[in-house]
Amino acid sequence: MSRETNRFVKQLKGSPIRNFDAAISDVKDLIRFTMGEPDFDTPDFIKAAAMEALNQNQTHYAPSAGVLETRKEIAKFMERKYGLHYNADTDIILTVGATEAITATMFALMNPGDKVIIQSPAFPQYEYVTLLAGGESVKIDTSETGFLITPEDLKAALDANPETKMIVLTYPNNPTGATYTKEEVEALAEVIKKYDVFVLSDEIYSELTYDGSHTSIAKYIPEQSIVINGTSKSYAMTGWRVGFVAAQSDLIREILKYHQSLVTCGSTPAQTAAGVAFRDGDEATATMKAAYLKRRDILLEGLTAAGLKMNNPDGAFYLFPRIPEQYGNDDWNFCIDLARKAGVGVIPGSAFGESGVGYFRMSYAASDENVIEGCRRIVAFLEELNAK
């Protein structure tokens, strides 16, 4: 056929994370640290809530904005945890995961030619959706600033790009695990409030903050902030696909239109179970977070002693080390060798943008046994590499 398909879609190459994971899937006895997915099962009380919803025949369409009781629980959660005030009727949309929340938000608010400021390295979806919406990504290299955007760099980027419509913040960060302190968030907000821009604040890992508590930028600039969150990471509910958008009602009205055109609504029983997670899930999340912290420390100690250089992540469940100097910046070949020669799967840092080149991402959302054995294998691989 001679007819052209979408020119923006043609430029995409699919998920580099999943593509690499598939490229090493034939390795026998591979220990995978590739996917950002909790190794825990969804807590039983959440599964019981879903089964009860099914037994009560909550199997019909939900409102497009989502099950109202769940939106009410999210509003309570956001106030209890972060001091944010949202009206469940007008300020919150339940989405099919945080990824749909990001897509619906960016398409609803952007026009072709708009620019989006994105820190680098970052989860690739932000750049992909910007492209699909006809926008242009402006990257801020954070590799020399602890993988965080500084107020000075943000101001410089905004001044140099007056067409900017949106700034994407994601913290704790995927792939680096870096996050902002309260003071750092406030300093960024002081810059942003001087410009006519939105902030898409992806806070899906907010409950997995290790030192101190998470501070949402919406606390300081609510009228400019669109907060993304969900159940996947904090409650081990990746397969349930429940996320949400919280923002001022005038923005939510526009995002809801796009959300309706994408999915009509999310899953009713999954949303009902999510409401129970937001209401009663603090203890389950704390248990998982403690396990991640233990695994982080095992890997930090072992891999640092073996010569790898990395920041100490303050949240999420990722390490982002530099690859050994023998590989230069060839993170793809390093990760291939690590998989095929050592039986350990990680993701090349270049999957997360130009500033990730020469690094690799390692998800420690894995069992204690796999973390210990994976660390042993990496150390042995590095010792053999250094002996050559």
UniProtKB/TrEMBL annotation:
Quote the Pfam families the UniProt record gives: Aminotran_1_2 (PF00155)
GO molecular function terms here?
pyridoxal phosphate binding; transaminase activity
Q: Which cofactor does it need?
A: pyridoxal 5'-phosphate
Q: Could you tell me which PANTHER family the record lists for this protein?
A: AMINOTRANSFERASE, ASPARTATE AMINOTRANSFERASE
Question: According to its UniProt record, which protein family does this protein belong to?
Answer: Belongs to the class-I pyridoxal-phosphate-dependent aminotransferase family.
Locate the Aminotransferase class I/classII large domain: which residues? 29-378
Query: What processes in GO biological process is this protein linked to?
Result: amino acid metabolic process
- For this entry, the protein name equals Aminotransferase
Its keywords, alphabetically, are:
Aminotransferase, Pyridoxal phosphate, Transferase
Q: Name the EC number(s).
A: 2.6.1.-
- Show the InterPro entries listed in the entry: Aminotransferase_I/II_large (IPR004839), AspAT/PAT-like (IPR050596), NHTrfase_class1_PyrdxlP-BS (IPR004838), PyrdxlP-dep_Trfase (IPR015424), PyrdxlP-dep_Trfase_major (IPR015421), PyrdxlP-dep_Trfase_small (IPR015422)
Q: Give the matching Gene3D superfamilies.
A: Aspartate Aminotransferase, domain 1, Type I PLP-dependent aspartate aminotransferase-like (Major domain)
